[in-house]
Every structure is written in structure tokens, then in C-alpha cells.
Design goal:
Length: 281
């Protein structure tokens, strides 16, 4: 059934990639086949960094940027600085990546047409234990209110781990430094307003705090793509959310391969049609 839906030649479909819940490579491939219509708009024209786990998430995986030597000729690539990055603009390429056991798919904050100019600002909301996902949701709500006051539209997603990501799509023309300084500046304002928030890397490991990480807003850095699986025990997903979904006390484990595979509606469906202006110096 899986083979009938793609031109990719599969291998080792019965290999278990998530030993805890017993999720096989076939299950992972089926997930990416079904989620492709929602995921590909967030992958399109972005050079990928993949994280592969050929022996499953219980073993040590590895990151890969350069396309494998035995890749099919129809895979599109983007050459830069001696590396041929994979571009994923179609379902077959996404399924081919799944067959490589590319569990995690990470994207830069810019597209190949303007690789040195970010088209998204990225807030990484990271709770430090004993702070919890609930604390991250509370801080994300504070961030939304602040951005709303600035008349900036924002889009949340789970990280697939313990935190949340909030994205702001950008109009053309900002530099990475301007975007990083904007995210950092917002974090500083939030730290002044809320005793749990931290905005500096030096304070990010303080117990029971929530760090607004701005550092990924740099050239060459990446974020995990919306709808990417994570190499976590329960096969969690970095899941786009509606802001209202945080009110029901969700947990990261609620958003996993089993609960996301049937999703038909993308809360981020308008994100790339809605570029925002931010305040820069």
C-alpha cells in the first residue's frame, strides 16, 4: 500500500525506529505521506538539515546536510559552500527522506531565493525544570499579548520536546542581526515584566525559569520544521497550534505520530501569506 503511493524504493520497512511504542519505519513513512500536504509549504525552497536514526531513536543518530551519494537524480539540491543541500518541494522527496530514517527535518529561517535574508523571526520558549510545559504555555501567552500590542501576528507550535516555538513571518529586507536583536529585545521586555522569564543565555539554566532563546535567529541556524517528528521516546511532533489550544493544559506528548497523522487543517496555513513588520534599530 505504501509503495503504491510513491516512486521511492523502500527498504527495511519492518525496522523498529521507536522501540517504546513499537513504531516501525513503515509507520514513519506513512506518517510523512499523509502529513505531506500540510508540511511541504513549510519546507519549500529551504535547504534542509536532517537528523537520521538508521537504527532507531534508541541509538545515536547523526545530522546530515550534504545529499547522500546514492540519492535519486530527481532530488533537487541547493549548492552552497561546498555542500549540496536537499530541497523538499514534493511528497516523493519527503518520503525518500523518511526512508533514510530522517526522523527530524530542520529548516533555515530563509529560502534559497534570498538565503541571506530571513523571512521569519523565531522565539524559542524553553522551560528549565522544575518549570514545565504549562509554564512555557503561560509565557507564550505573555509573548502573544506583547506582540499583539505591537500589531504583530504570531504563530505558535510545540517544539516536540519540552518547550514551544513562536514564529513571526517577515516582510522582505531584514537582516539576521536585526531580527535577532528584535527577538532579544522582546525577551528583555518580557523579563522586566515577569519574574520567571529569562532573556540571557547566561541565566538560561536557572531552575524554574523560562528562557526566551533568540540565538537561533542567526545565519546558518535552523528550527525544526512544523510537523517534523522528533527523536523522542513517544514519537512526538513539532505541531503547529491555534493560540486557543494552549488553554486546555496540553502536554507535548499529546502531539505525536498517532494524533497528528489524521490532521487535515493547518493552523499555520496563512503564515507565509502574512508577512509582518517589526521594529528594528
Amino acid at each position: 500500500m505504501v509503495q503504491q503511493e510513491t516512486r521511492v524504493a523502500f527498504s527495511n520497512l519492518d525496522r523498529i525506529l521507536y522501540p517504546g511504542p513499537g513504531i516501525s519505519k513503515k509507520d514513519v513513512i506513512e506518517y510523512y505521506i499523509r502529513i505531506a500536504p500540510l508540511m511541504i509549504p513549510h519546507l519549500r525552497e529551504r535547504p534542509l538539515t536532517i537528523r537520521r536514526f538508521p537504527d532507531g531513536v534508541g541509538s545515536e543518530g547523526f545530522y546530515q546536510k550534504d545529499i547522500p551519494r546514492n540519492a535519486p537524480e530527481w532530488i533537487r539540491t541547493y549548492p552552497r559552500d561546498g555542500t549540496r543541500y536537499i530541497l523538499c518541494d514534493d511528497p516523493d522527496t519527503l518520503v525518500w527522506l523518511a526512508n533514510l530514517a530522517a526522523i527530524e527535518i530542520h529548516t533555515p529561517l530563509s529560502r534559497v531565493s534570498s538565503i541571506d535574508t530571513p523571512d521569519v523571526a523565531y522565539f524559542d520558549i524553553d522551560p528549565e525544570p522544575p518549570a514545565t510545559f504549562r509554564d512555557a504555555c503561560r509565557v507564550a501567552g505573555l509573548l502573544k499579548r506583547l506582540l499583539d500590542e505591537l500589531e504583530i501576528c504570531s504563530y505558535p507550535k510545540t517544539s516536540g520536546k519540552k518547550g514551544l516555538h513562536v514564529a513571526v513571518p517577515l516582510r522582505e529586507g531584514y537582516t539576521f542581526r536585526e531580527v535577532r536583536d528584535f527577538v532579544h529585545g522582546v525577551g528583555r521586555i518580557m523579563e522586566d515584566q515577569d519574574e520567571q522569564v529569562r532573556s540571557e543565555l547566561s541565566d538560561s539554566r536557572e531552575p524554574a525559569t523560562v528562557f526566551i532563546d533568540y540565538l537561533q535567529n542567526s545565519k546558518g541556524k535552523t528550527m525544526v520544521c512544523p510537523y517534523s517528528l522528533r527523536a523522542e521516546t513517544m514519537a512526538t511532533v513539532s505541531a503547529p497550534l491555534e493560540w486557543g489550544e494552549m488553554a486546555g493544559d496540553p502536554q507535548p506528548e499529546d502531539f505525536n505520530i498517532s494524533t497528528l497523522i489524521s490532521r487535515k487543517y493547518d493552523p499555520w496555513r496563512e503564515i507565509w501569506k502574512n508577512p509582518q513588520e517589526i521594529v528594528v534599530k
